[in-house]
Every structure is written in C-alpha cells, then in structure tokens.
Write a structure and sequence with these properties.
The mean pLDDT is 92. The longest helix has 12 residues. The chain is mostly beta strands. It contains three helices and twelve strands; from the N terminus they run βββββαββββββαβα.
Length: 208
C-alpha cells in the first residue's frame, strides 16, 4: 500500500524488452536506501517489485508483466525518462495522502494547463470506464501522486484517447517542482487510480 506522496524523482537507466514483459533499471537514491529484493516501490503509480539491487545502492531493477504494460504508461518509458517514486507505506507513519494500491485503473491524457501565480490547474481526460468513481473534492492518483479533484466536466468532443469526461487538479508549487506532472506537456499520457473505497461501495450495492 502507498499514500500517493512522491518521495523523489527517479530516472530510467535502461529498459529491456522480454518475451511477454519488460525489465526496467531505475535510479532512485532515496527509495533504494533501505530497499531489498522483493520490496514494493511505486513507479509512476504502478506497484512494482524489486528484483535486483546493484552494489552502489541507488539503482534497482523491476520486471513489468504484459498486462501492466498494456494498462499503464509504463511501456512508453525509455532511458532518461523521469519517474515518480514512492516506497510502500510503513504502518507507523502518517497517511499524508490517501490509500493508494498501485493498481492502475486506466490512463488519461493531459488536455490543458492553466498557470497562475501560486498554482496551476491541470485538466486530464477521464476514461468512461472509471468516470463514475471520480467526484469533485474526492481523491485520485495521477502517476502516483495523491491529488484532490478540483473540477469535473464533459467535453463537447472526445479527446484523442476517446474520452469525453475530464477532471481537473490544482498543483501547488511543491507538486510542480517535485513530480513529473509539474512539467508534463499537453498530450502526455498519465496513469490513473481511483479511490478504492468507491469501488468497494459499488460492489456492495450491486450485491445488496
């Protein structure tokens, strides 16, 4: 489990395409400071398992299965790509964001960025399959970042990814400086994870 509070910006060192998977080598000095084989680290919001750690201590390797490559933006990463990194939450720590599983529900596209003096509003397309789980002032995870939905709407025309629904999040200076979303240009594909509580409630109602 994670909280959606990004600990550091890491960098993809190398990628290797396997038969039905991919292997990523990632540099992240902070998240590897106490990481070992089998530990979970969220990479752009995707929970991945450390399979190797080099002696230098700042590089780790993860394997990504085909399903994850298809359902997330991980497959588009290349050497030099910057990624948001977060270690699994410790049971004795404060829950700074919200409950994040690291299981991507879908991807969206950055539609627009509206900067102001102290924050920036980012509009992102919302796939039809998960739109019902997103509410204004609720929580959503974008590339592993716990954010509050500041606006919802329906576009007159579908976005390039086929979505008509959109949501907005407001980025404070810290989020702009310390995460990939702070500099992601219009057209960037981002990983989305909705609040798991909403999915549980829907399931209970359906079976009630």
């Amino acid at each position: 489990m994670f909280t959606g509070i990004v600990e550091e910006l890491g960098e993809i060192v190398a990628t290797e395409q396997l038969a039905d998977a991919a292997r990523l080598t990632i540099r992240g000095p902070l998240v590897t400071s106490d990481a070992g084989h089998g530990d979970s680290i969220a990479v752009n919001g995707v929970c991945l398992t450390v399979v190797d750690q080099q002696v230098e201590g700042d590089i780790f390797t993860v394997d990504v299965m085909a399903e994850t490559l298809e359902r997330s933006s991980i497959g588009g990463l290349a050497a030099g790509s910057r990624v948001n990194l977060e270690r699994a939450a410790a049971v004795n720590s404060r829950l700074g964001g919200h409950i994040v599983q690291g299981h991507v529900d879908g991807t969206g596209t950055v539609l627009s960025r509206t900067p102001s003096e102290n924050w920036e509003v980012v509009r992102i397309s919302l796939p039809d399959s998960i739109a019902r789980y997103v509410v204004e002032k609720g929580s959503i995870t974008v590339d592993g970042i716990s954010l509050t939905v500041s606006g919802l709407g329906l576009a007159a025309e579908a976005a390039t990814d086929g979505s008509k629904d959109w949501f907005e999040v407001s980025l404070i200076p810290t989020t702009r400086e310390l995460t990939t979303l702070g500099t992601a240009p219009v057209g960037t594909t981002v990983n989305l994870e909705v609040d798991v509580i909403a999915k549980y409630v829907e399931r209970l109602v359906q079976r009630g």
